[in-house]
Amino acid sequence: MTLYELKMSLKTVGDQLAKAESDIVAKAGDPNTPISEVQDLKAKKVDLQERFNILKTQHDELEAKQRQEFENKQKNGILNGVEDPKAKIIAAKAEMIRATMQNRPMSEDARAALGDRNNTGGEKLLPTTMVNQLLHEPFVKNPLREISTFTNEVNLEIPKISFTLDDDDFIADTETAKELKATGDVAKFGRHKFKVFAPVSETIIRGTDTNLVETVERALESGLAAKEKKVAFTTTPKAGEEHMSFYSAQNAIKVVNAENKYKAIKAAIADLHEDYRDNAKIMMRYTDYSDIIETLANGNQPLYSAQPEQVLGKPVEFSDAAVDPIVGDFRYSHFNYDLPVTYERDKNVRTGIEDFVLTAYLDHQILLKSAFRIAQVTPVV
User: Fold this and answer.
1) pLDDT in tens, the chain (381 residues)
2) Mapping DSSP to helix (H, G, I), strand (E, B) and coil, where does residue 188 land?
3) Cα–Cα distance between 25 and 41 in angstroms, integer?
4) Cβ of 329: how many Cβ atoms within 10 Å?
5) Peptide bond into 31 cis (omega under 30)
6) H or E element: which one contains 192?
7) What is the rounded CA–CA span in Å between residue 225 and residue 143?
8) Angle made by CA atoms 222, 225, 228, in degrees to the nearest 5
9) Are 336 and 220 in contact (CB under 8 A)?
10) Among 80, 208, 297, 316, which has the highest number of CB atoms less than 10 A from its own CB?
11) How many domains does the chain have?
C-alpha cells in the first residue's frame, strides 16, 4: 500500500472512529436507548481504534522511510550521475513537481539545472527553464500561437505602430489614424490572474520522471492554450476582460457582411487597408471552410485537395472558437504573460487527488482594431 493510500485509509478509519465516539456519547445520554446498543458501539470503537493504530504505525514507518530516502538524495544530489543534459532537465523538473506536491523545498542541484532565480527556495517562482518552455514554445492546440505575438514581460508597454515619421499625416489608413487619435499610440498591458490545475495522483508522483513531467506539462500547456483561446474568441467576456476578445462590443472591430461566408471573407480581405492586407491571415472554423468548399466545388473533386490559401486568397488557421471568420494582420494581436509565474499544490477534497497549480497573469491586446475585419453573413430579412 502506498503512502497516499495509507493516508486515505487512515482518514477514513479516523472519521469512523470519531463518529463512533460521538454516537456513544449521544446514545449513553439517551435513557430510551438500550444499554446493549451503547455496548455494541463501545466494542466497535475498540475495533476501529485497533485498526487506526495499525494503519498509523504503517503510515509513520513508510513516511519516515521516504523522508530518509529524500534526505539521502538531498545529500548525494538528485541529479548525481545524470550526464545527458536533456535527461538532467527532465529529472530536475520531476524533482520540482514532487517537491511542490510533497510540500518540501527543491534540491539545490535541481534548482540550478532549471535556472531557478530563487536561491532560497522560499518563494514559489516557476524556474526559468519551465517558464520559457511553457510560455514560448508553440502549442498546436492554440492556432493563435502561430500567428499572434507572444511575450513574457513585466509591466509591458509597447507602441501600437512600429515606426513614425516627422509628418504626423504619414498614416495612409484613415481608420488607423482616427483610432490612434482616440486611443493613443501606446498599448499598456495589464495583469489578469488565472490558474491552471494539473491533477497528479500518488502513482504518477512515484512513477518515472519522464511520465511525471509529461503528464504535468501537457496539462499546463493545454490549460494555457485554452485560456488564451477563450479570452480571444469569447462572445461573452468577463468584466474587465472585454478588450481581449475580437468579438467584444468594446473593441467594435469592423464587420463586413455578404450573402455567404465565402463572399464575406473575400470582401473583408478587400476592405482591409493595403498596409494590413499584405500580411493578412484568416482565422475560421473548419466546418465553415468545409461548407465553402462544398458550395464552390459543386462536384469538382480537385477543389477538395486545394490548399485553403488557394481557395480564399490568404493563409488560413482553423479554430472552432472562431464563430465568425476573423481576417487581419495578426501581428497586431499581442499576448503578454506578466511575471512572475508561480506554482503551488492544492487538494481536491472530492476526489482525493492533489493538483499541481500554476498561477499566471495574462493580457491580450488588439493593438490596432483597424488591422482586422469580421466576416459575417448578411441576415435574412
Assistant:
1) 777 777 888 888 888 988 888 888 888 888 888 888 888 889 999 999 999 899 889 888 888 887 776 665 555 455 665 667 778 788 888 888 888 887 777 777 777 777 765 554 445 777 766 666 666 444 446 889 889 999 888 889 888 765 554 455 545 556 776 777 766 678 889 999 999 888 887 777 777 888 888 888 888 888 888 899 999 999 999 999 999 999 999 999 999 999 999 999 999 999 999 889 999 999 999 999 999 998 887 766 677 788 999 999 999 999 999 999 999 999 999 999 987 788 888 877 666 678 888 889 999 999 999 999 999 998 755
2) strand
3) 10
4) 21
5) no
6) strand 192-200
7) 9
8) 150
9) no
10) 316
11) 1
CB of 278 closer than 8 Å to CB of 314: no
As given in the structure block, the three cell numbers for residue 222 are 493545454
- The β-bridge relationship of strands 326-328 and 281-284 is antiparallel
d(CA 299, CA 240): 48
State the residue for C-alpha cell 490545475. Answer: 197
Residues 366/197, Cβ–Cβ less than 8 Å: no
Distance in angstroms (rounded) separating the CA atoms of residues 139 and 47: 55
- Asked, for residue 61, whether it belongs to a domain, the answer is yes
Buried-exposed string 316-327: b where 16+ CB fall within 10 A, e elsewhere = bbebebbbbbbb
Determine phi and psi for 365, rounding to 5 degrees: -115, 125
What single string gives the DSSP state of each residue in 228-297? HHHHHH-SSPPTT-GGG-TT-TTT-PPEEEESSHHHHHHHHHHHS-HHHHTT-EEEE-HHHHHHHHHHHH
Give the Cα separation of 104 and 77 in Å (integer): 15
Cβ 213 vs Cβ 198: under 8 Å: no
Q: Which residue reads 498614416 in cell numbers?
A: 171
In a domain, 93, yes or no: no
Cβ atoms of 225 and 135 closer than 8 Å: no
Q: Which residue has the cell 478509519?
A: 13
- Residues comprising the chain, all counted: 381
As a three-state string, the secondary structure of 35-62 is: HHHHHHHHHHHHHHHHHHHHHHHHHHHH
User: Is residue 219 one of the residues assigned to a domain?
Assistant: no
Closest to 286 (Cα-Cα) out of 267, 253, 268, 311: 311
Is residue 184 situated within a structural domain? no
Residue-range definition of the domain harbouring residue 24: 3-76
Compute the distance between CA of residue 189 and CA of residue 364 in angstroms, rounded to an integer. Answer: 8
